[in-house]
Design a protein that fits this description.
With about 325 residues, the chain is mainly β. The chain folds into 2 domains: about 120 residues, Sandwich (Jelly Rolls), CATH 2.60.120; about 140 residues, Jelly Rolls (Sandwich). The chain is built from 1 helix and 26 strands. The chain has a 7-stranded antiparallel beta sheet with strand order 1-20-17-22-15-12-11, with no helix packed on it. Strands 3-8-5-6-25-26 form a 6-stranded antiparallel beta sheet, with no helix packed on it. A 5-stranded antiparallel beta sheet has the order 2-9-4-7-10, with no helix packed on it.
Length: about 325
């Protein structure tokens, strides 16, 4: 299309991705104040509880019955990267690990050989609204790493570098931006090898600003997701909000914002270039491996569910924290 742009496409639910990424979704929910159970202090009438993905009154319950979110469910063969810019997510898993993160924190979880986890969105404030802005990204694992042990780590927002430039900020969640390196990802991740040039950047550009996105070092796949703002211009090409832009990696990309600030997520990485066979929450290389995974899950439940409820949430009084499978607890204010 242009010197910088390969293609432009509308953002659906979920977003279209390129190898090594499998899936990306953006949740923006304007939840009301919470009730005593940390659910919405509002009627749930008219919602298809258990499968509520239609925005009604500005928010959704997803698979939650009383608290919004995603009760216990399994994964194998890939990683989830969960970015919570606003609000909070309560994590619990079959390894006995748990956490509450939000307001800029990121959780990086390697499902590997198999794990169950829940992701619930407790509405902690009873006196004001509880907005939630969350991205979840699925990053594939190569065949050699499909059965690595499950692992999760927290990238606390205090530890994630934010680069301030004239009229713009870049939050470096993964990869390297102008010699600023993100915190280390999970150890068995495709992103752990810098040669794969995996990058996840959350970019905010002020209104009426020219911003240059530096070129990649190698021939990676590269997509810029424009999720908030009005219009932007790249190489003279107008791009509307809620569109993705597949970029040529080996060229600087110069964009110009209009009369509103613009917000982006950039996903970049060397393709794994292996067969992908997906069945719901399982991603393997062959149908035979999918069948074996379903059998394994049926027999083992990937360790079972050690929590009282499938939609486990932590007490309202808990702050941001992570409890790891070995019992280590890290608390944040």
């Amino acid at each position: 299309m242009t010197d910088s742009i390969i293609s432009i496409f509308p953002l659906g639910f979920p977003w279209q991705t390129q190898d090594p990424f499998l899936f990306a979704v953006y949740h923006l929910d304007h939840y009301p104040k919470g009730n005593e159970e940390m659910g919405p202090d509002a009627s749930l009438e008219g919602r298809v509880l258990g499968n509520d993905f239609t925005i009604k009154d500005g928010w959704r319950m997803y698979h939650g019955q009383s608290i919004p979110g995603f009760p216990a469910h399994p994964h194998r063969g890939f990683e989830t990267i969960t970015i919570v810019n606003k609000g909070f997510c309560d994590h619990s898993d079959s390894l006995g690990a748990a956490g509450r993160f939000g307001e800029g924190d990121v959780q990086w979880m390697t499902a590997g050989s198999g794990v169950q986890h829940s992701e619930m969105f407790p509405l902690l404030h009873t006196d004001k609204d509880n907005p939630l802005e969350l991205f979840q990204i699925w990053l594939n694992l190569p065949k050699a790493s499909k059965y690595v042990p499950p692992h999760f780590k927290m990238l606390w927002h205090e530890e994630i570098p934010v680069i301030e430039e004239e009229g713009a900020t870049v939050k470096v969640i993964a990869g390297n931006y102008k010699n600023t390196t993100a915190p280390a990802p999970a150890p068995d991740s495709w992103a752990a090898d810098s040669a794969n040039e995996v990058a996840i950047w959350n970019i905010h550009v002020e209104a009426n600003t020219n911003f240059t996105l530096p070129q990649a070092l190698t021939e990676v796949s590269r997509t810029l997701y424009f999720y908030e703002g009005s219009n932007i211009e790249i190489d003279g090409q107008q791009v509307h909000i809620n569109h993705g832009i597949q970029l040529r990696p080996r060229t600087d990309v110069m964009l110009k914002t209009a009369d509103k600030s613009a917000h982006f997520i950039l996903l970049q990485g060397k393709p794994i270039a292996e067969p992908v066979v997906q069945h719901g929450p399982f991603v393997m290389n062959t149908q035979e491996e999918i069948r074996a995974t379903m059998k394994d899950y049926g027999l083992t439940q990937f360790g079972g569910w050690p929590w009282r409820y499938p939609d486990q949430v932590h007490s309202r009084e808990k702050g941001r924290f992570a409890k790891y499978p070995d019992g280590t607890v890290v608390e944040r204010e």
